[in-house]
Design a protein that fits this description.
about 20% helix; binds N-oxalylglycine; globular; binds manganese (II) ion; 17 strands; 4-stranded antiparallel sheet; alpha+beta; 5 helices; 8-stranded mixed sheet
Length: about 280
Amino acid sequence: MTITVTPLSDVLGAAVTDIDLSRELASDTISKIKEAWHEYTVLVFPNQSINDEQQEKFCRHFGELELVRTTNVANDHPHVMMITNVTDTGKPTALEDGEMMFHYDQCYYERPCLGATLYSIEVPDEGGNTLFANCTKAYEALPQKWKNRISSLKALNYYNYGSSPTTRPENIDTKTPQWVHPVVRIHPETGQKALYVSRLMSMRIQDVSTEESDEILYYLFDHMEQSQFVYEHIWSVGELLMWDNRCSVHARTYFAPEKRRMMRRVTVRDPVPVI
Ligand code: OGA
Ligand code: MN
């Protein structure tokens, strides 16, 4: 059986069908998935029925699994976390609801994850969509003078899980994880350059004044969040979605707090540093 890959938009994203992720996958199927992932950045596998182990097993084809680092986890499943607004999951849970601004996962660590998967278990009938911005295309579309201006800049990335996911923090708590990364990074597998900043987590350009840092950052945020670089995923139950965290940022739209939303997340570790 060969998989079918169908683009979801001109920006990024493809649906992968004619595949059952609860089964053993042949190595040439994995190769085709990897090829599609590099081309489309976000892959969606609809109509899947998978448990924790099957999601973990799928992710292991792309690298080692990342331990959950932001919440307490169960010893027997240290790689699985529920991203949800409901509290009765019986599992390690990151309580998240409503809107969240664009971000790269774990960019506040020295080694951010390579990618992550979300499996949709419950979705609201309205809102709670996930937005993905193509940071390779956003970089390529920059005016040359901006490419030159940012080519060797670095930014401090920071996130405090206790603070609001819809505003930039006023102050940076020195005890909370933070790391300086290049503003433009090179994808280790495709060799393409991508903008590596985000409105939620990139706080400060290094070695320039605060005014210049703000000017650069807000220009880049506004640029990369334009609709021509953004795909909005409206979820159905039973989708496994995987994104490349080296060249795309993601965000979540508002949903009503009384509506249930539950995603199971498994994350893939990056074996190489950000360059
Ligand atoms: C995440 C995340 C967005 C969503 O799991 O890292 O940002 O739509 N999720 O739940
Ligand atoms: Mn995220």
